[in-house]
Structures are given as C-alpha cells and as structure tokens.
Amino acid sequence: MNPAEWKRVTRTHPCPVCGKPDWCCITRDGTVVLCMRTESDHPCKGECGGWIHRLSSAGPACRSVPSTIFAEKPDRIPSRSAEALLAEWRKNTLAITLSQFAKELGVTRKSLERLGCVWNGAQSCWAFPMRDETGKVVGIRLRRGGRKYSVTKSRAGLFFDPDIGPKRSEHRFAWLTEGPTDTAAVLSLDPQAVVFGRSDLLSGWNMLKKALALHGVTEVNICVDNELAIEGRTDSPGFSGNLRMAKALGLPCRFVQIPGFKDIRDYVKSGARLSELKSFLAFQKYTVVAP
Length: 291
Fold this sequence. Notes:
This protein is of the alpha+beta class. Helix content is 28%, strand content 21%. It folds into two domains: 1-72, no CATH class; 79-288, Dna Topoisomerase Vi A Subunit, Chain: A, domain 2 (3-Layer(aba) Sandwich). It has helices at 79-91, 95-105, 109-114, 180-189, 205-214, 227-231, 237-249, 264-269, 274-281, and strands at residues 6-8, 25-27, 32-35, 51-54, 118-120, 125-131, 137-144, 147-150, 158-159, 173-178, 195-198, 219-223, 252-256, 287-288.
C-alpha cells in the first residue's frame, strides 16, 4: 500500500486498535490500521513492522475513526519562509530565557544555540529547525511544555548542527537520537560529538542515511528510550523501530540504553559525565544488523 495513503495517529485521534496516540497509522479510507503494539494474523512486511488490522474484523474494542483525521495537508512550507520565520524569532530570543529553558531540560544553552533553537513569541513556544541531509531548513518543530508539534506545511527532517562540516576525519561515528532535546543532551555531554536527531522514528531513514554518508560516518550509537524499565512493558515499539532503522542504515551500531533512566536526556540531566558514558559504552560492542 502506498505510504501516502496512511495517516499517523495523534492524541486527538488515537489508534482504534490499541488506543495509543503514537507509532500506529490508519489508511485514508479509515478501513485498515497498522498497529505497532497489538498483534494480528497479518504482520506488516514493510520496514516499520507492526500488524495489519481491518476495522471490520479487529474486534468490538476498536474505536470509530473520525473523518477529520484524513483531512488533506497543504503544500510543504518553502525553505525561504521557514528560514525567515526562524530569523525573525531569533531576534526576539533572549539569552537569559534560552538559559532558563536549557536549565529546565538539563542541557547547556550552547547546545540549544547550535541546533538553532529560538523563541516563538506569537505562539509562546520554542522552535527548532528541521533540516535535510545538506543542512537546509525544511520544517520547524515547536515545543510548548510537554506538547510537541510542527509549523503548518513543515516537512519532517533532522535536528543537527549544520556547522559540523562534511567528512571531517573525526566523524568516524555519530550519535542518533530522537527529537531535538535528546540531541542537545548528547551535545551537552560531548560538544565534539556528531549527533543527528530524528523528528520521526518510523520515517526519514533515507534522509538520515544520506546525512551519514555525507559526513563520512561509518559507525553509529543509537540512543534508545528505556521503555521496558520505566514503564514495565513487555513490548517496545521504540526499540523494534530502532532495530529496523539499523537494518536500513546498514552500518555497525551500538544500542545505547542506560538502565534506570528514561532516555539520554534524563541521564544527562542527572549530572552524568562523559567519562562515565564512555566507560558504559566500553562494554557494548558494535553489531552489524543484517538488512
């Protein structure tokens, strides 16, 4: 089935099968669900995994799907418009305010500046540019409290410092994180690190693969949320999604999942040091995940 026919679930319109607001997808005609948690007799053969459910046979627990979830999206935001918005917001971003935001997150102000974080006063939220593999801005991610969303017409992209420069000799390995704040956390711990944050764990792998090639990366550390330890779950769409991504990238990788912490930012916020992380990684070997 064409990916354009699928729509991601949201908090407003959760998955009709598992009831969760993330990971899963629904077809535009509202008849088929790709659920990442609830198994069926029809496992998905695509790179993202999951199980196919037809709403007519998925059971009485399934919820109805409102037609508003399939509303057409407008054209993508032009690159010039996105950069102009960020430039305008940057003028009104105070250093003291950015420092306060950094303290709340448990990261350094410098790491947020390197990612282009600015204050959107009109909507009272923070904004992060999303970039393609060359560093060009293709969209804007917004963050207000715990809510994360994007500027209308934004295209999903990567969060990274565009000034790292392509194919420097020290780019042998890179960190892969999910979201801009985890990216800032790694940069806070190791300012010399090459880090790419993904706006969406289940897509954009081709863009990421191009970015890694452009910057000469040959090995990756993939940060994985510690969902099993924190939530007591027996399954983890996040970990399985990262595993499938590793297969798609085709590079030697280490899965960094630090016990006792929800994610890498939680670990950094606790006061972790780079030497501690390096000691932890020394016991983890790189693995080649077969495609």
